[in-house]
Amino acid sequence: MAIIHFLNVKNGDCTLIQHSSGRNTLIDISNGNDIKDFSEAESALESLSPQGNFKQKLYPVNPIKYLQDLGINQIFRFILTHPDMDHMDGIRNLFNTFKVTNFWDTENNKVIETFSNNSSYKKEDWEFYQEIRNPDLKCTVLHLLSGSKNRFFNENYNGQGDGDGLYILAPTIDLIQKANNTKDYNDCSYVILYNKNGKKIIFAGDSGKKTWDYILNEYKKLVSNIDVLIAPHHGRKSGGNDEYLDILKPKLTLFGNANSEHLDYSSWHNKMLDFITNNQAGSVILDTNGVNGIDIYVTNENFAKKRYRENDTSTHLDTKKYRGLYYIGTI
């Protein structure tokens, strides 16, 4: 089982998985260079509707500080879904702060030669990424593909069982080659299914139509009727395609931060699928150890109250375990 933290990190992605094995997985990083501390910031509220603008994008968390506050000092695997800067913003600080044992990377050929003076991203992060791709360094670099099996991520010590329950749906060699040829590196994005004890959660990176055409052809039964989807491309209209939602039928989808006009609200509304955004909820924590399903918590008290305003969701949980999160339901 696992506790999964979908962090509120501005226009980017960062997800922490605390496995019951004691190992930690971090998928992407964003806002890792921001030294501001918004931990005491007042949660903003602009609308009485749970679908309104709660302005949590204004109060992003720094993943490095977040992990330190949890007492984490080692990351067993860091997964970079693909080589876009909004998925590696702070990667140098991450590796300099924590011991990282395994690094999952794609064999992409992306090159960035210049950085705009107005860019919020650091050239040093891109250069550091190129350095750690060197297999001679202490960190083990893995180029894993769809269907890969190995100890710990989906097998146990004896090469059996499900290990940490991580199954790679994409990329394939063909998808990586096409991405390298077209320079559309979203096509080589990792898509990972967490599948353990009947709980199914998909981390979709920035996957697009080509990736989902492959996944639906190869893994249709496996990805049917999942519990939670971390939306492709932060929930933007450019992620995935209409067909994949009809198969996945997620009970809940999590959208990252992006400009509202770019988010694909209509596809979820039209299919009557539930979703919440980082801008509404702040960070979202999924506890897969729940007796009746996956228990869901958020960091924004106002959103929790408005989403389930007829229920008593105002009580803090045990702060020693949950750091003052707010329960919003079980799926």
Characterization of this structure:
This protein is α/β, with parallel strands linked by helices. Helices cover 22% and strands 21% of the residues. It has 10 helices and 15 strands. The chain has helices spanning 63-69, 91-97, 123-132, 173-182, 209-219, 242-248, 265-270, 278-281, 301-307, 319-322; strands spanning 2-6, 15-19, 24-27, 74-79, 99-104, 140-142, 166-170, 191-196, 199-203, 228-230, 252-255, 275-277, 284-287, 295-298, 326-330. It has a 9-stranded mixed beta sheet with strand order 6-5-4-3-2-1-13-14-15. A 6-stranded mixed beta sheet has the order 7-8-9-10-11-12. Helix 3 (123-132) links the parallel strand 5 (99-104) and strand 6 (140-142).
- Which term fits the overall shape? globular
Total beta strand runs? 15
SS-based class:
alpha/beta
Number of helices: 10
Give the SSE string. EEEHEHEHEEHEEHEHEHEHEEHHE
Biggest sheet features? 9 strands, mixed
Share of residues in helices: 10-25%
How are the SSEs placed, and which strands pair?
Layout: E1 2-6, E2 15-19, E3 24-27, H1 63-69, E4 74-79, H2 91-97, E5 99-104, H3 123-132, E6 140-142, E7 166-170, H4 173-182, E8 191-196, E9 199-203, H5 209-219, E10 228-230, H6 242-248, E11 252-255, H7 265-270, E12 275-277, H8 278-281, E13 284-287, E14 295-298, H9 301-307, H10 319-322, E15 326-330
Parallel strand pairs: 3-4, 4-5, 5-6, 9-10, 10-11, 11-12
Antiparallel strand pairs: 1-2, 1-13, 2-3, 7-8, 8-9, 13-14, 14-15
